[in-house]
Amino acid sequence: MITGEQVKELRDKTGISVMQCKKALEEADGDMEKAIAILKKNSSDIASKKADRDAKDGAVVVKTSGNKTILVTLHCETDFVAKNEDFTNLISKLADLALSEGVEKMKESSKAMIDPVIQKTGEKIELGEISETTGETIGNYVHNNKSAVVVSLNGGNTDLAKDIAMHIAAMRPEYISEADITEEVKKQMKEIFEKEVADIDKPEDIKQKMLQGKMSTYFKEKTLLDQSFIKNADETIKSLLEKNKASIKEIRRSTI
User: Fold this and answer.
1) What pLDDT does residue 128 have?
2) Predicted confidence (pLDDT) per residue in 146-195, tens digit
3) 215 in a domain, yes or no?
4) DSSP 3-state assignment of 147?
5) How many other β-carbons are positioned within 10 Å of the β-carbon of residue 199?
6) How far apart are CA 244 and CA 163, in angstroms?
7) By CB neighbour count within 10 A (0-12 exposed, 13-18 middle, 19+ buried), where does 115 fall?
8) In a domain, 85, yes or no
9) Whether the predicted pLDDT of 121 surpasses 80
10) pLDDT at residue number 44
11) In CATH, what number is assigned to the domain containing residue 16?
12) pLDDT digit string (tens) for 166-175?
């Protein structure tokens, strides 16, 4: 006969519901290790059945140790589960493992960590973007656990890196500098803006100036170094970096 103490012990070890623990113990004839193996198999089976469902919600977390910063994105189906304690504990443990053992080791161990939480929450859960950033000057910003930015600088300080990370999260630049804008993108945008000025009743040279103005404005709004700093509209990110004798080394970001 399966006792309440056995069920409690199994639940404490696995976090799985009382009913599932009781069934596993009954199937294992009271053998604790066998019951744990049964629950792991059940977790894996449940995860496989949910594999084709959409996991469009989730959370991001950033953790730092020494000169290494890890960004982990974990997807689920609903915001309700994204705020669930089991889910938040899971993403925290995944980030801790990536910090201590490395990203690849974490990926190898992730399925065994994720499957039991799928079993408990009833939703598909899967890893999203994972990145590791190293350097002496790193700052990060996380907004509502739904978007995160990590910035590594050459020179400057961590407060500056954090400010730029916050700026990126708010302004969402598509390019770091003008050099990152491809000729193909420029061509596409030129075609779009040409249509906008085509029917304007102005001389051709004026139309060309309007076209160039539209393109210049558009790309400045999309380019990090040309954007006005959110904390001081009188300076650009480029001038802010120059003032602090710093430059962008690396940017990592993820948004749910």
Assistant:
1) 94
2) 999 999 999 999 999 999 999 999 999 999 999 999 999 999 888 888 88
3) no
4) strand
5) 7
6) 13
7) buried
8) yes
9) yes
10) 59
11) 1.10.8.10
12) 999 999 999 9
19 and 30 part of one domain: yes
Tell whether 42 is covered by a domain.
Answer: yes
Cα–Cα dist 83/128, whole Å:
17
51 CB-contact burial (10 Å; exposed 0-12 / middle 13-18 / buried 19+): exposed
Residue 168 lies in a domain: no
Residue range(s) defining the domain that contains residue 9: 4-49
Report residue 223 as tokens: 């380019």
Boundary-marking domain end, from 134, 151, 185: 134
Q: Residue 41 and residue 47: Cα distance in Å, rounded?
A: 10
How many domains is the chain partitioned into structurally?
Answer: 2
CB count in 10 Å sphere of residue 17: 12
**CA 39 – CA 46 distance, rounded (Å):** 10
Residues 101 and 170: their CA atoms lie apart, in Å, by 32
CB 130 within 8 A of CB 140: no
Residue pair 62/37 in contact by the 8 Å Cβ criterion: no
C-alpha angle 102-107-109 in degrees, rounded to nearest 5: 95
CATH number at residue 69: 3.30.479.20
What is the C-alpha end-to-end distance of the chain, expressed in Å? 47
Q: Which of 83, 115, 134 is the last residue of a domain?
A: 134
Whole-model pTM over 0.85: no
